[in-house]
Specification:
Layout (H helix, E strand, L loop, with lengths): L3 E5 L15 H16 L4 E7 L8 E11 L5 H4 L7 E12 L8 H19 L4 E4 L4 H8 L4 E2 L5 E4 H10 L3
Parallel strand pairs: 4-5
Antiparallel strand pairs: 1-2, 2-3, 3-4, 5-7, 6-7
Helix pairs in contact: 3-5
C-alpha cells in the first residue's frame, strides 16, 4: 500500500503533464490553468503525491472563496446561522484523481483533506459551509456520501457544523 501526502501544487516539482483523469476538462485545468489561478490567488490547488515519487500527482483539489444566498439554504443548515442576505462559504471547485490510481481511495483522502483544510481556514476567515458544483450525477453521489445536501439546481452544500462532525468520524 502506497503512502501519500497532500501539499500545495508546485509547478517546478509536480509533473502536471503526466496527470490524466476521466475528464479532459479537469486534466487540462491541472496541466494548463491551475498554476495561473494560484498566482492570481483566485483558487488554491492541492495535490496528493505518493511518497515514493513526489513529482507524480495522484489527485488534486481546489479551494476558493464563495458566497451562499441565505434564502437558498436548506432549513437544517440555515436555522443556526446569522440572517444576512449572503454568507461566506468555501468552494470545493474541483476534486479528481488520476485514472492510474483508480480504486485506491484517493477520492476519499482528497475529500477529507479538503474538508479539514476548509474547516481550519474557517476559523481565520469566516465560512459557514463548503459548497461544490458536481460535474455529473456520479460526482454528486460521491459528495452526498460525505453528507452534502442539495442547495439549488447545480450546487451542493455541507455546513461547517457538519464538516466538524464528519471529521470526527473520518479524521484526516
Amino acid at each position: 500500500m502506497s503512502v501519500y501526502r497532500i501539499e500545495a501544487l508546485d509547478p517546478a516539482k509536480h509533473r502536471r503533464a503526466e496527470f490524466q483523469c476521466e475528464s479532459p476538462a479537469l486534466t487540462e485545468f491541472l496541466q494548463k490553468r491551475a498554476r495561473q489561478e494560484m498566482e492570481a490567488r483566485s483558487s488554491a490547488c492541492f495535490v496528493l503525491v505518493p511518497l515514493d515519487d513526489v513529482g507524480r500527482i495522484a489527485g488534486y483539489y481546489t479551494l476558493s472563496a464563495a458566497e451562499v444566498v441565505t434564502t437558498e439554504l436548506p432549513e437544517e443548515v440555515a436555522k443556526k446561522l446569522p440572517r444576512y442576505r449572503l454568507l461566506p462559504a468555501t468552494l470545493l471547485g474541483r476534486l479528481v484523481r488520476d485514472a492510474a490510481f483508480c480504486g485506491r481511495g484517493i477520492g476519499d483522502r482528497l475529500m477529507v483533506d479538503a474538508l479539514a483544510r476548509a474547516f481550519t481556514g474557517s476559523v481565520e476567515i469566516g465560512s459557514v459551509a463548503v459548497v461544490t458544483d458536481p460535474q455529473d450525477d456520479r460526482a454528486a453521489e460521491f459528495y452526498r456520501g460525505f453528507g452534502f445536501l442539495r442547495l439549488n439546481d447545480r450546487r451542493l452544500i455541507l455546513s461547517m457544523r457538519d464538516v466538524a462532525r464528519m471529521l470526527q468520524e473520518r479524521p484526516a
